[in-house]
Amino acid sequence: MHNKLNRIPTPFYYYDVDCLQQTLQAINRHVAPHPNFHVHYAIKANANPRLLRLISQAGLGADCVSGGEVAAAIAGGFEPSRIVFAGVGKSDNEIRLALQAGIHSFNVESLPELEVIDELAAELHTTAPVAFRINPNVDPHTHAKITTGLNENKFGLPFEQAADALLRAQELSHVEPVGLHFHIGSQITETEPFRQLCLRINELQALLEARGIRVANINVGGGLGVDYDDPIGHPIPDFEAYFDTFAQHLQLRDGQQLHFELGRSVVAQCGTLVARTLYVKEGVARKFLIVDAGFTDLIRPAMYGSHHFTQNLSAEQQTPAERYDVVGPICESSDVFSRDELLPVTHRGDLIAFRSAGAYGEVMASQYNLRPLPKAYYSDEL
Ligand code: LLP
After folding, report:
1. Residues 73 and 150 in one domain
2. Of 268, 285, 312, which marks where a domain is finished?
3. Is 348 in the same domain as 213?
4. Which segment of 100-114, 126-140, 243-257 scores lowest on mean pLDDT?
5. Residues 249 and 349 occupy one common structural domain
6. Burial class (CB in 10 A: 0-12, 13-18, 19+), 364
7. Is the CB of 187 under 6 A from ligand 1?
């Protein structure tokens, strides 16, 4: 494998298609006992066309947050009737595109947005299915920048406004209230926050029922985390425990459908960013490994302080021998993949792999410093 990778110009993304297929099979296997469970892939995690095709072929729906994502989902083979569309700031054109495509539902995040969707649906002589995104105020115990379900976040409607929002939607003639939507955050590695979410939804459903309101769909968002420390030992997240939590704790009403929006857990472990060592530089007290990938290729370490499991693919002996600060070439001091990374002795030309980079990697790449965007390669095409 190393020989094949060695011929590709660096930096690049490498996708292990088997790993993705096995992940998709695991999802389908654990969802199969629950015919009312529907998994949508959160396209924001990775919109690579080849991956979208494989994911749509496995039968997942799509979760989109922009008109661009709705278009990419349709081009990638997702049925419009299985696309949900979220986002606090949908533009008129994005709403029109989704209405014309005939998506499953809009996840509406404010009352002004509801009114605009109603108006635009009326202009197009159609009715928009809407779910309200409700803020459950559950703490997912994850990174602050990816916590979304607390009251101080910009997302969704406050819990207390859910009933009035649904009643308002019933009054409007071109929207149809079909569901409730929630999302508490991302990279959640315990089941407890998801159980808390279930309890909040049960509470809300009881409140709504007292006011004579029942919806057809519950959407619990995404957020299932992956093992960034040990991607080799744990390439596939524990979907069984995740789905079981909802099966056990969520009190669905007769005929109610349960939707999920999984991003990271579907694609993180199949992707690797591969870079080449440009220089090994001796600092005063530390050694720098300067590679040809930077935060333009993978922004997660600089933006969230995340650590991606790092390997020297060229070293003959994998025994860790030296500590390096692994840094990129971008002219900012935050362009650091990790500090004191323990690696085999590394030389100019060695290939360095940053694992678990399939989610929020390639899709967040930029051209800052006028660097080219990284290209993608696939295990079954090399
Ligand atoms: N649904 C909604 C409404 C979301 O906001 C998100 C992610 C998802 C689903 C998918 O969540 P997942 O299953 O991937 O956790 N760039 C950050 C993560 C941002 C997550 C944004 N929302 C990172 O690299 O960690």
Report:
1. yes
2. 268
3. no
4. 126-140
5. no
6. middle
7. yes
- Greatest distance between any 2 Cα atoms in the chain: 70
Per DSSP, the residues of 184-216 read: -BSSB--SHHHHHHHHHHHHHHHHHHHTT---S
Q: What is the pLDDT of residues 280-324, one digit of tens each?
A: 999 899 999 999 999 999 999 999 999 999 999 999 988 889 999
pLDDT category at 147 given cuts 50, 70, 90 is low
Residues 207 and 324 grouped into a single domain: no
The reply to whether omega before 11 is within 30° of 0 (cis) is: yes
Which atom of ligand 1 has the smallest separation from the CA of 265? Answer: 13
75/169 same-domain check: yes
Tally of CB atoms within 10 A around 283: 8
Q: Is any atom of ligand 1 closer than 6 Å to the C-beta of 181?
A: no
Residue 116's domain spans which residues? 17-268
Local structure of residue 226 (DSSP, 8 states) = -
DSSP, collapsed to helix, strand or coil, labels residue 345 as coil
Asked if 263 and 287 sit in the same domain, the reply is no
- C-alpha 29 – ligand 1 centre gap (Å): 23
Interior/surface letters 89-128, b for 16+ CB within 10 angstroms, e for the rest = ebeeebbebbbebebbbbbbbbeebbebbbebbeeeeeeb
Do 335 and 261 share a structural domain?
no
Cβ 186 under 6 angstroms from ligand 1: yes
Distance 263 CA to ligand 1 centre (A): 6
CA of 184 to the centre of ligand 1 (A): 9
Q: Report the domain count for the chain.
A: 2
Indicate which residue's Cα is closest to atom 7 of ligand 1.
Answer: 186
Give SS3 for 64: strand
The residue whose CA has the least distance to atom 6 of ligand 1 is 222
Dump pLDDT digits (tens) for 197-233: 999 999 999 999 999 999 999 999 999 999 999 999 9
- Do residues 44 and 93 both lie within one domain? yes
